[in-house]
Design a protein that fits this description.
By secondary structure, the chain is mostly helical. The chain contains 1 helix and no strands. The protein starts with 10 loop residues before the first helix and ends in a 9-residue tail after the last helix.
Amino acid sequence: MRPVKRSRVNKARSAGKFRKQVGKTKMANLRSNPMRGGWRL
């Protein structure tokens, strides 16, 4: 593993993208099986 030394990474945009994806997976999970309670990330 290389040490992380990336510059000019838009953290806010990445966080927004990540949050959107988490919301999508959460919705898919709730729709498919709400009683099992496993969160896909």
